[in-house]
Design a protein that fits this description.
heterodimer; A: mainly alpha; MetI-like fold; 13 helices; globular; B: mainly alpha; 2 domains; 11 helices
């Protein structure tokens, strides 16, 4: 690499340029630029036209001002209770689901890490496999399970434990269940990778010195596995916050998570500028957890 | 972590519960797909009538064909772009904008789908106003959207493989006068081929499964399989969707298991060769 730039053959330079620029520009155009457009349209007025938002600039002679930007959408979001409720409910559901995922995922990851290497790979495969198959259809499987005439209700009825079906589908409980069910692999995998690499000498030493099992866990294992806990939690929390499919399939009419509100604003009310403003606010909410995730991954590697 | 003590009873029971939780709903749904009765409460005997109903449902067949086409094309392009991105991050030491590049690779993985979908649609609409392309939204715009989020997954997989790989073979080839492009094609790519294959498979299944981003970026004409399924299951249980789900999940699981078995075998073979050589 000590060669001066001009002595590198043209073909090599071209190859290097291709390797870097092709994916870089693709992501810049189709991932980064769209956010700028969302941000821009969030300041536009909704109009009945194709596309349904006002222009940002108006250079026509006689226009009052060349810049047509309005804060109306943001004002509307803060004034209308619907959005406060949606953001708050999304935060609440995402937080509780993340804690539930952690409570189930930690012992699972710990158990897998404690198994013999052969068993370990099979169990790990069993955790990953559902993630590779259809997310939508796995959510649907819970409609089959939880419905009024679904598998659980018909089993309980047949056993004589209940006389009328229990309302389980279209409730907040079903939404928690669905999120934990679909995102549990994201919790188990980072936890496993931390626990599997963990040096057991410290634990053995603590045990030799008379520490109890729970003391070893809370004083040694848990603190050492914190990068995995943070990475797993953020990998569940961030997508759960904007989740659309689960609340709209398993939740009731009142399960207003922000992803669903945004989707409805866009597809049902066709208010694109307002949907853009909702998206912009959501983006600002997830910046903090994304930065947490980045730093925990950096620490881990 | 191989301690002297095996997992405790508590850990074992959580493991059992966890795996039952993961698999029982899928298995129950698969069992119901063979139920002759349309009602979930009644077992009407074994039947494959929902499967034959599926074969006669033109809407579902067309949507499935469209989804498979989009998945194959987007997975292929995503593998090319994602592999290049992985190479850029691990083998091209210094370049301007590297920090932004790293962020652009990581962000699509955690971005809520509603935001990715909405922003891509607004990009397509703005581009149409500006340069007249894309003329209409449909299969092509969905494909572009899927390439974008799938290439990030592939970049991460390929990058992890490249980072853990011994660079001495590539360095030796360079010392012997191989040009960087030649070395990449003759040495690096064959070595990371298993990661590229699993990346392609992941991209394929992610595309096949995507509902939200496809709904935003599709136009009036094109409905992918998840879009058709979603509109049907929003109204509750439909027996033919049980059959469809059984086919999709069964095929994908089988494919993934076979692929990972082949990869495991080739890994063992190379490590055995290395030991004997």
């Amino acid at each position: 690499m000590s060669q001066a730039n001009h002595s590198i053959p043209l073909g090599d330079k071209l190859w290097r340029w291709l390797v870097i620029s092709l994916p870089y520009w693709w992501l810049a155009i189709f991932f980064l630029a769209p956010f700028a457009i969302v941000f821009k349209i969030s300041f536009a007025d909704p109009v009945v036209a194709q596309p349904p938002f006002s222009n940002f600039f108006d250079f026509s002679p006689g226009a009052e001002s060349w810049l047509l930007a309005t804060l109306d959408n943001y004002r509307f979001i803060t004034e209308d209770n619907l959005y406060w409720i949606s953001y708050f409910k999304s935060l609440k559901i995402a937080t509780i689901s993340t804690v539930l995922c952690l409570l189930l995922g930690y012992p699972m990851a710990y158990g897998i890490a404690k198994c013999q290497p052969g068993t370990r790979n099979i169990l790990l495969m069993l955790v990953i496999l559902p993630f590779w198959t259809s997310f939508l259809l796995r959510v649907y499987a819970w409609i089959v399970m939880l419905g009024k005439t679904g598998a659980i209700n018909s089993l309980l009825l047949k056993m004589g434990l209940i006389t009328t079906p229990i309302e389980m589908l279209y409730t907040d409980g079903a939404v928690y269940l669905g999120i934990v069910y679909t995102y549990i692999p994201f919790m188990v995998l980072p936890l496993y990778s931390v626990l599997e690499k963990m040096d057991t000498n410290l634990q053995d030493a603590a045990a030799d010195l008379g520490a109890r099992r729970w003391q070893v866990f809370f004083n040694i294992i848990l603190p050492l596995s914190m990068p995995g806990v943070i990475a797993g939690s953020m990998l569940v929390f961030i997508p759960a916050l904007g989740e659309f499919v689960i609340p709209s399939l398993l939740g009731g009419i009142d399960s207003l998570m922000i992803g669903r509100t945004l989707y409805d604003e866009f597809f049902i009310n066709r208010d694109w500028p307002l949907a853009s403003a909702v998206a912009t606010v959501l983006l600002f909410i997830i910046v903090v957890p994304i930065m947490l995730l980045q730093s925990s991954l950096k620490e881990h590697s | 972590m191989s301690s002297h003590r095996g997992p405790s009873t508590f850990i074992l029971s959580v493991l059992c519960f966890g795996f039952a939780f993961l698999y029982v709903p899928i298995l129950v749904m698969m069992a119901y797909s063979f139920n002759d009765s349309a009602l979930a409460t009644v077992w009407g005997g074994f039947s494959t009538r929902w499967y034959s109903a599926l074969l006669n449902n033109e809407q579902i067949i067309n949507a499935a064909l469209l989804s498979l086409k989009i998945a194959a094309v987007s997975a292929t392009f995503a593998t090319i772009l994602g592999t290049l991105a992985g190479l850029a991050l691990t083998r091209m030491r210094r370049f301007r904008g590297r920090f932004l590049f790293t962020g652009l690779i990581a962000a699509p993985l955690v971005m809520p789908e509603v935001i990715t979908g909405l922003s891509l649609l607004l990009l397509f609409v703005s581009l149409q106003q500006l340069i007249g392309w894309p003329v209409s939204r449909g299969a092509s715009t969905i494909t572009i959207a899927h390439i974008t989020f799938a290439m990030a997954y592939i970049a991460v997989i390929v990058q992890a493989r490249l980072a853990s790989m011994d660079e001495s073979l590539e360095e030796a080839a360079m010392d012997l006068g191989g040009r960087p492009m030649q070395v990449t094609f003759d040495i690096t790519l064959p070595l990371i081929a298993p990661s590229m294959i699993s990346g392609w498979l992941l991209a394929f299944t992610l595309s096949l499964d995507d509902l939200v981003i496809a709904s935003f970026t599709s136009g009036a004409g094109a409905s992918t399989l998840p879009m058709v399924i979603f509109s049907k299951i929003k109204l509750g249980v439909t027996p033919d969707i049980n059959a469809l789900a059984t086919i999709i999940i069964g095929t994908l699981s089988l494919g993934i298991l076979i692929a990972s078995w082949i990869m495991l075998r080739s890994q063992r073979k190379t490590s055995a060769q290395r030991q004997s050589g």
